[in-house]
Write a structure and sequence with these properties.
It is a single chain. The protein starts with 20 loop residues before the first helix and ends with a helix. The protein has 18 helices and 17 strands. It is elongated and about 80 Å long. It is 38% helix and 15% strand. Strand 15 and strand 16 form a beta hairpin. By secondary structure, the protein is an alpha/beta fold. The strands form 2 sheets. The protein has a 10-stranded mixed sheet with strand order 8-17-16-15-14-13-12-9-10-11, with helices on both faces. Helix 2 packs across helix 4, helix 8 packs parallel to helix 18 and helix 16 packs across helix 17.
Length: 512
């Protein structure tokens, strides 16, 4: 399994950069400033579309393949005209349907339409009839309103056709920044985008609507990125590999940190054990489970390499954490909701250990957010990571739920002073300084009971090894998805820690 993911990338360095639609417009402008003609950018974009279209055509038909190219009134349509010309020059049968009037086209799109020597028919729902492949070049990522009228009718016909669809930039009707449909939206088989991906290619439901995504090099100089204040990345090893705490030959377990995981009561111990095993597999030198007295026997019967210490209430937890060698702590999995859990969290934060708060540790502060954020602020020199799913996020940040996922995570991190891991199939990791990583390697079978507890364990295990918090959280999320993908269908949470070694071996010696 390649540790770099399944996407085809072009364009040189900084492959993990994600550009908003506004930033992509700036990148195109800078490329022109640096001497690349805008017509060359469009010609190269259309060539990328044509190349991908030929890969998607059904084989063995024994006849000339027929392609319908649906062009919009802007630059996305200009890319479509280029693709149509190149595909026709290659001997394919191409029909071009245009939304609007050719005379209304402007700039580069008008020039590329003039270079198309074939017929241009008006866009209708029937324009796709008989096509073996449809190229959607109606609207790009910058669309800011719902698609209506004949364009909406064409999208409905396209989606119901059963014919493969290749989208240009993003499926028409999709917001390239948020991954959200603005109204009617194309369901693409594959998407070709240019220079760098956009957040909407990774965020759900955009990730599903795009199908596979290919990034095509259109000739934009990579140095344009040096003039854009990049703040969003695809989560992957290139983002955090340099900070990953690989063991050293001269190292010792005591130099790899000591993670503490806090257990719930006797009937609620399994979640903490999942977290503890995750921390151990993630490389923490030692892991201890702090257990209430009534859960000691239950936990002791299940533990081997993970150590066990009894505690009672926040004073007992403070006593354990007074040993500063225990430098990272996970609280929340099956800990219980309420005042007692809030007191445990406050005790852990006051002790100064790196802290991961999950599940019940987050829900317990619904209505008490200011107390949590003040406690985090009081230990600014120590990392804190919050790992909410959408429901837990809404309880802590009810005023942020309407924002796009990266932005609400970014605002939550700034407000709380913690790294925020907003979980889901498109998990977003945000740092208080504004950095954001969007994860795209989580397979569907990762949605299983206890998986989040293991993620908390991976995170605390990396923090125990003193990996910086944004990088530790990003690495934990990616490793979590990669382990699930390596195992495959039938996954249960207990499998995740035991498949982590295979993923880590791939990072050391990646498959080309």
């Amino acid at each position: 399994m390649s540790m770099q993911g399944a996407h085809s990338l072009g364009g040189g360095r900084n492959q993990g950069v994600l550009l908003s639609t506004e930033e992509m417009g700036r990148a195109d402008h800078l490329a022109v400033e640096l001497g690349v003609p805008s017509l060359a950018l469009m010609e190269n974009a259309g060539a990328g579309v044509a190349a991908q279209a030929r890969l998607l055509l059904p084989g063995g038909a024994g006849r000339i393949a027929r392609i319908a190219v649906l062009c919009g009134p802007g630059n996305n349509g200009g890319d479509g005209f280029v693709a149509a010309r190149l595909l026709r020059d290659a001997g394919l049968e191409v029909r071009v349907a245009l939304l609007g009037n050719v005379a209304a086209l402007k700039g580069d799109a008008a020039e590329m339409a003039a270079r198309w020597a074939g017929e241009i028919v008006p866009l209708t729902a029937d324009a796709i009839a008989g096509a073996d492949l449809i190229i959607d070049a109606l609207f790009g990522a910058g669309l800011d309103r719902p698609v209506t009228g004949i364009a909406a009718e064409a999208i409905a016909a396209l989606n119901g056709s059963g014919v493969p669809v290749l989208a240009v930039d993003v499926p028409s009707g999709l917001d390239g920044n948020t991954g959200q449909p603005l109204g009617p939206v194309v369901r693409a088989s594959h998407t070709v985008t240019f220079f760098r991906r956009k957040p909407g290619h990774l965020l759900m439901p955009g990730r599903a609507l795009c199908g596979g995504v290919t990034v095509h090099d259109i000739g934009s100089p990579p140095e344009v990125l040096d003039r854009i204040a990049i703040k969003t990345w695809t989560n992957g090893p290139d983002l955090w590999r340099d900070a990953f705490p690989w063991p050293r030959l001269e190292g010792h377990k005591y130099g790899r940190g000591h993670a503490l995981v806090v257990s719930g009561a006797a009937a609620h111990t399994g979640a903490a054990r999942l977290g503890a095993r995750g921390a151990l597999r993630a490389g923490a030198g030692l892991v201890t489970l702090a257990s209430p007295e009534n859960a000691l026997i239950v936990n002791a019967s299940q533990l081997t390499a993970v150590m066990l210490l009894p505690f009672s209430g926040p004073e007992g937890l403070s006593g354990i954490l007074a040993d500063r060698r225990k430098n990272a702590v996970l609280l929340g999995p099956a800990l219980g909701v309420g005042e007692e859990t809030r007191a445990l969290v406050e005790a852990a934060l006051a002790a100064g250990a790196a802290t991961v708060l999950d599940a019940d540790a987050l829900t317990s502060f619904a209505g008490h957010q200011a107390e949590l954020f003040a406690a985090i602020a009081s230990i600014a020199e120590r990392p804190v990571v919050l790992t909410p799913h959408d429901g837990e996020f809404q309880r802590l940040f009810p005023d942020l739920v309407s924002a796009a996922k990266p932005e609400r995570a970014r605002q939550a991190a700034a407000r709380s002073g913690a790294v925020v891991v907003l979980k889901g199939p498109d998990t977003v990791i945000a740092a208080p300084d504004g950095r954001v990583a969007i994860n795209d390697n989580a397979p569907p079978w990762l949605a299983t009971a206890g998986a989040g507890d293991v993620l908390g364990g991976f995170t605390v295990g990396l923090l125990a090894q003193r990996m910086p918090p944004f990088e530790a959280a990003s690495a934990a999320v990616w490793l979590h998805g990669a382990a699930a993908a390596a195992f495959g269908p039938g996954l249960i949470a207990e499998d995740l820690p035991d498949w982590l070694p295979q993923v880590l071996r791939g990072l050391i010696d990646p498959v080309p």
